[in-house]
Request: fold
Amino acid sequence: MVSSIFTYIPVIKWQRWEQKALEKVDSTIKSRLLPCIEVRDSDQHKNILLNLNTVWPHETLVDYANPSGKLTSSRSHELLFFLNNSIQKSMPVRPVFSPADIIAMDSKLLSTVTKVSYIVIRLRKDSLLINDNDVVLVKRAVKVLKQSNISYKIIVDLGVSPLSWSEEDVDLFSTSIQSLMNFDALSLHLISGAYPESLASIKTGVATFRRRDWDFWTVVSGRIDKAIGYGDYGILAPGWTEDIKQLRSNRIAIRYTRDNDWLVLRADGKTTQDSIAISTILVNNYSSDFKGRGYSFGDDLIADRADANIPVKNKKCGHYHITEAWSHHIAYVLKEQY
Reply:
């Protein structure tokens, strides 16, 4: 297990079944969890206004940029409303901005941001190349924040984790990360996601997918003199959107986080009996991997389905597979690895 002084940052898309997972996080690990919630449209804006303080009344990062990472004018207005509401209610919310959006921030939003304890600069990259222009952009954003006495953290978000990397790739990337750490941020987190966009390769049965997000962070963190924080997209692909949700398969799956991969058990349908069947397979055939009842809310859901003594009507299936996967994943990262 890596010993870390930093919180773990999972990127949450703020869907109902993710919210359920956050609600059920074990009290022993809550203080080390700092979710970054992406609020990508007006419906989610309304939802988070109503539900955040019930679902997760703890320190939270909130990013109002659209899926491409841009804080549009309409999104900026909604963010301003959300921040003012959160400040009024003393909610521990920390807004997330791209470097460019910080540089272009209007006086009204900037004035409101001075009232939170810190903000986050999120540098999104789709490759391992952090060039001079990226560093200059972050430097300009830092200057704006320092002029207003605003504290800040930095997230370097690669989106999809690299498929592979050489020693030279890691050396160059680590050097770039070191240069960003010279800006005196409160912390720097490296985030990426390796869960596949589609499970179409699994017709019915079992497959594994390598957790390249954790692997790459482990390699990079070992090359840098100062500690860096870890974050990921969990059991959703970085490119997941609400449009993709509409195309969801008619077959349910268990996504079970292990040390270096995800064990995926995919059923032939999406009935309650399908959920029970794959849960029973996990518990009985993969007993050395299954953490058992009490490990997380997700593991409890799986154990209940596999328990013949529990009435079928009390077994939570369907969309609860998303809840269970996130719940177990968060617990595994914080209890076993980070």
